[in-house]
């Protein structure tokens, strides 16, 4: 090859270095999702975690609202808590007597020589009117009354509270299952929740508003929240807080505090040894009791001060000052609680049977009560449980102390369908069944459940509440309630 051709050869190409990948620290973070998408994801995750609770709420609300019927669209005939809340918003601790919707179960206080006494005879300008019940339901209603005033619908509020109570009860059952205190699965817990909803007196109480039934239903919801935090004394501050809310809704629930005390001191099953061990290792139990008291103290202190202002006594909620009430004769003679009342309350709770008329054929009930063996037939299985786990004794003792006030009380609960005071301890009774070992598939259990649903369906349809009673009075029916006309002062 010639020199010339050798020189004309093109130069070799220069190697190009590969591109340098950016190192990991310098990589840009992914862009955050838009707020709308993040919120949607959060809602989906929440619904996925609590889908059973959501379905129970929706089913409970739909059924209770349907049976509430036209009542759902109007305020009840006894919206006492609405009037109490509105009075607070107006800056007064008593209730304006010029706006009272009726004279049913209001407390009237008169100052005589510096002493607070019940109003008697002609009303005077200085008389003060109050709701004669614990006031926590009025506290819950405050924001809604602030929007709607005296016209706030306590009936629909009661239906919503009832649906939330069912969710609270299911959450309690689920919590017991997760702790190993109950062997029930999800489907059985759902079934027990539906039994509370439609197979107990809860059904007829949750659909009508009115001060007495509203308090009972809210008491069920708060009881479930209390027990969930009290089991094992695991959350003493929250247990104390919900305990005070429950007590300031239904005073007999004060005695349910025994459940937390037992869970803190001797949860079982070896209670004797646990009590003996307290002598040398008492600090953990006392700490739990102290935290429980700390949780209950704020609301309890406010309620006690309010009672002293209204009635002159720490534990008086107003029934000693009922104005022109049929029970005043018994209260003046025997007091609010007395052994004299036991026989008639036991009859109302266990012996009252449906009234059958043959000509024409008609099925009726006594407005003083109806036996619990019909309104809660599962009761018979609690007497013969299959198992007696750790919670068995603590629940029974709590039922016993919660039942005593209603059995020695001056009033049977009239007017009512069934012994409504039993709702104070119905959650504990159903918990006893939940841990008692009876299968929900057992034929006898299924028959009892069916009977309970049928009887309480009858109560939800047949019991008129105060609206119906007032209509009877206007029509010249039996005298049982006073005409709802406002007082004149």
Description:
Helix 6 runs antiparallel to helix 7 (186-198) and helix 6 packs parallel to helix 9. The protein has one domain (50-466). The protein contains 21 helices and 5 strands. The strands form 2 sheets. A 3-stranded antiparallel sheet has the order 2-1-3. The protein is 54% helix and 5% strand. The chain has helices at residues 3-7, 35-49, 51-68, 80-89, 136-148, 154-179, 186-198, 202-205, 211-230, 236-247, 257-265, 271-277, 283-311, 328-334, 342-351, 372-375, 379-383, 391-407, 426-435, 443-462, 465-474; strands spanning 106-112, 115-118, 128-131, 355-358, 361-364. By secondary structure, it is mostly helical.
Quick synopsis:
The protein has one domain (50-466).
User: Strand sequence of the main sheet, in spatial order?
Assistant: 2-1-3
> Distance between the terminal alpha carbons, to the nearest Å?
134 Å
Strand count, sense and barrel status of the largest sheet are: 3 strands, antiparallel
| Weakly predicted, low-confidence segments | 1-8, 470-489
Number of helices: 21
Output the structural class. mainly alpha
Query: Compute the gyration radius: what is it?
Result: 31 Å
């Amino acid at each position: 090859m010639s020199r010339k051709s050798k020189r004309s050869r093109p130069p070799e190409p220069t190697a190009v270095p590969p591109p340098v990948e950016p190192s990991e620290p310098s990589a840009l973070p992914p862009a955050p999702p838009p707020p709308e998408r993040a919120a949607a994801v959060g809602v989906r995750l929440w619904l996925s975690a609590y889908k059973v609770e959501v379905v129970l709420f929706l089913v409970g609300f739909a059924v209770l609202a349907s049976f509430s019927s036209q009542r759902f669209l109007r305020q009840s005939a006894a919206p006492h808590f609405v009037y109490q809340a509105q009075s607070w918003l107006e800056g007064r601790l008593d209730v304006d007597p010029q706006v009272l919707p009726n004279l049913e179960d209001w407390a009237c206080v008169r100052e005589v020589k510096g002493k607070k006494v019940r109003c008697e005879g002609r009303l005077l300008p200085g008389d003060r009117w109050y709701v004669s019940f614990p006031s926590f339901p009025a506290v819950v209603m405050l924001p809604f009354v602030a929007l709607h005033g005296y016209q706030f619908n306590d009936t629909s509020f009661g239906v919503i509270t009832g649906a939330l109570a069912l969710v609270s009860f299911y959450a309690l059952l689920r919590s017991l299952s997760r702790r190993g205190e109950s062997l029930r699965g999800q489907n059985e817990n759902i079934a027990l929740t539906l039994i509370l909803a439609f197979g107990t007196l809860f059904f007829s109480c949750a659909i009508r508003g009115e001060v007495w039934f509203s308090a009972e239903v809210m008491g069920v919801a708060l009881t479930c929240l209390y027990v969930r935090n009290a089991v094992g004394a695991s959350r003493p501050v929250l247990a104390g807080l919900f305990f005070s809310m429950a007590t300031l809704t239904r005073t007999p629930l004060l005695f349910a505090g025994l459940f937390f005390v037992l869970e803190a001191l001797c949860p079982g099953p070896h209670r004797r040894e646990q009590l003996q061990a307290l002598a040398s290792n008492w600090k953990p139990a006392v700490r739990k009791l102290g935290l429980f008291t700390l949780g209950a103290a704020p609301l309890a202190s406010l309620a006690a001060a309010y009672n002293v202002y209204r009635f002159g006594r720490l534990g008086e909620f107003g029934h000693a000052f009922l104005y022109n009430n049929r029970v005043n004769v018994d209260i003046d003679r025997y007091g609010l609680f007395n052994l004299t009342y036991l026989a008639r309350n036991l009859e109302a709770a266990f012996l009252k049977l449906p009234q059958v008329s043959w000509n024409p054929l008609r099925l009726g009930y006594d407005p003083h009560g109806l036996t619990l063996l019909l309104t809660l037939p599962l009761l018979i299985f609690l007497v013969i449980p299959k198992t007696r786990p750790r919670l068995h004794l603590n629940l029974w003792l709590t039922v016993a102390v919660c039942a005593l006030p209603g059995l020695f009380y001056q009033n049977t609960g009239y007017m009512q369908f069934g012994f409504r005071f039993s709702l104070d301890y119905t959650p504990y009774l159903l918990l006893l069944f939940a841990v008692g070992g009876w299968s929900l598939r057992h034929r006898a259990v299924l028959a009892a459940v069916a009977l309970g649903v049928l009887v309480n369906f009858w109560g939800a349809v047949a019991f008129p509440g105060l609206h119906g009673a007032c209509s009877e009075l206007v029509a010249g029916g039996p005298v049982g309630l006073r005409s709802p006309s406002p007082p004149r002062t």
